[in-house]
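Sat 14:20. Reprocessing the chain from the morning session after the first attempt stalled halfway. Input below, unchanged.
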Amino acid sequence: MNHVVERVPTDEINSFFSLCPTIAGFIIFPVKKIDNKMTITGARGINHKIQDRFDLTLECIRRFYLKESSPLSDPLERYSQFFNLFDDFKGYVNFFHLQDSVEKDYSEVKFWHLFNNFDYSPLPKNIDEYQSYKIRVIDFIKARNQRMLNSTKQNQ
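Finished this time. Tokens:
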């Protein structure tokens, strides 16, 4: 993506990267290897159909709960005990405050970039795609940060 990112002003990149490491920019997955095989985090980072994108990972998780295949089927199945804690996709989404990344009925993920059943490159190809992607990621992180803050206030 160097050919895309090099066209974005440095202050814009810095602003984006300063928002991403807030709590809403992170998600918890099990870290202990099972049978010395790759963890979910490792698998999503190296899979060329995911490229560490959380929206695509969430789609894989949605499909896991529906017993459908995805590029992360093997590692998600390996950690099924973790996902069973949440009963279903809605439970997972609600527990981790991810409602802003799915449709209201939890039936679909709101993708940050073009999605065609994992057949389209997960990385933006040009500056317009990157800008659109960046806006969606920022909107998600801000909304999730607010949702988490609201949740803590309700629980006080």
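Residues 127-154 form the longest helix (28 residues).
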